[in-house]
Amino acid sequence: MQENNTNTKESTSSIDVIRQGRIDKAQNLREQGINPYPYKFEKSASAKELQDKYKDLADGEETTDRYKVAGRVMAIRNSGMFIDLMDDTGKIQIFSHKQNIDPEKIKLLKMVDIGDIVGFEGDIRRTPRGELSIKAIGFEILTKSLKPLPEKFHGLTDVETKYRQRYIDLIINEETRETFKKRSLIIQKIREFLAQRGYLEVDTPILQTVASGANARPFTTHHNALDMDMTMRIALELYLKRLIVGGVSERVYEIGKCFRNEGIDTRHNPEFTMIELYQAYADYNDMMELTENMVAYVAQEVLGTTKIQYGENEIDLTPPWDRKTMIGAIQEYTGADFMTCNNLEEAVKLASTIGVHIEECDSWGKVIDTVFEEKVEPSLIQPVHIIDYPLEISPLAKVHRNNPRLTERFETRVNGWEIANAFSELTDPIDQRQRFENQALAKANGDEEAMEIDEDFIEALEYGMPPTGGMGMGIDRLVMLLTNSSTIRDVIAFPTMKNK
């Protein structure tokens, strides 16, 4: 009754034969007056609901409790007597014996293949071997699948399939389904946390005329109706700050897609999801507290704990988190104190003494950033706020109130990754223009990731922006951390892939 299920190494010709056989079955159903793709089915319970409700039903016990269930056929045994049915909540077994089902319906079982979506009606029982089952009295084919499912993924070819055809990955792998369910719950709990604190969720333009708000290379496009070149946003920042200027709320945030025309690796994808939030009358100290409390809240709500496992490391997300200055952390790990350097040349020389050789760098701050990434960042497994970044690499942060060479900026590191970036936001329009002009000069000198001058944003600042704390966090990276996923592609449903 059933063709042999296939794996991903099966030849195209073999799959074509199976596909044609299933097309023929669909046609046979039509000839019998049965639509192999009907419009609706009234489910009365999910697999998980039944598993939970009848968890104490004894082995071999039967009930007269009747339900309708529907899902995808994942296994067929004993010529169709036993069928494993999977829906979005889990699996339940179907017991389809000829004593309980109309003989004409029994004939239709021969038309059912692994991968088909089928609805069953029947009574709850538990087999003598302990398997909760539906003792079917009837069924309906709801979708006739034409292609066979692979048995399992293995090797490079299957990794390609996993990302290119996520729908197959989701059908086959429960772990993948759980990852994306957790992703949805993580975002839901972030919104819940912020709503409790009076934040207003907003949305801002994706297509923009100026690529700014981050150091990144943008994607470009053309707006035909307005006949103008535009970029896809690289950050949410500047429009959210305009809303703070306008006073729509003293606390705003957005969760949305950003696009950076850059490389791909295990933690970077050119299309990614961010949250950025801004709070008037706050500074970067408030943002540190908010960041650690938000992540801990989400972990507790989604995972039931603030102690998580990532790879070989147990990571404790319980607040408060450690704080280290960027220059202090470098000194702690290398012994080098870059505050003793008065210029670029001295910083490059000091870096070389600890094994970091700088070839192209145009500022003291960028040398420090390079040294930090090489010598410190990989060691920061437990959560820590790295604070007080050099002025040259922080064009949107206020100058540190105690040191004009630094800014009030922090990046939160967990498992050696940056997961958040935050500032005491720059609100002085004169200072902001000078920072933008420095960025424009860097761009003119070949730095493709430097920001452009956003004249309208500067004008907005001239109307007055209150003291503000702001924070941005990569949602994809947070989901990786909380689902123990090794690559960002595992937490993006449909990552962009190179054409075959």
- What do the pLDDT scores average to? 93
Largest sheet: 8 strands, mixed
Helix content: 25-40%
Distance linking N and C termini = 36 Å
Stretches with pLDDT under 50, minimum 5 residues: 1-10
Radius of gyration: 29 Å
Structural class: alpha+beta
Provide the spatial order of strands within the biggest beta sheet. Answer: 6-10-11-20-19-18-15-14
Layout of secondary structure:
Layout: H1 12-31, H2 47-53, E1 62-77, E2 82-87, E3 90-95, H3 103-108, E4 117-126, E5 132-143, H4 155-164, H5 166-172, H6 174-196, E6 200-201, E7 207-208, E8 220-223, E9 228-232, H7 237-246, E10 251-259, E11 271-280, H8 284-303, E12 307-310, E13 313-316, E14 322-325, H9 326-334, H10 344-353, H11 364-375, E15 384-387, E16 399-400, E17 403-407, E18 409-414, E19 417-424, H12 429-444, H13 455-462, E20 468-474, H14 475-483
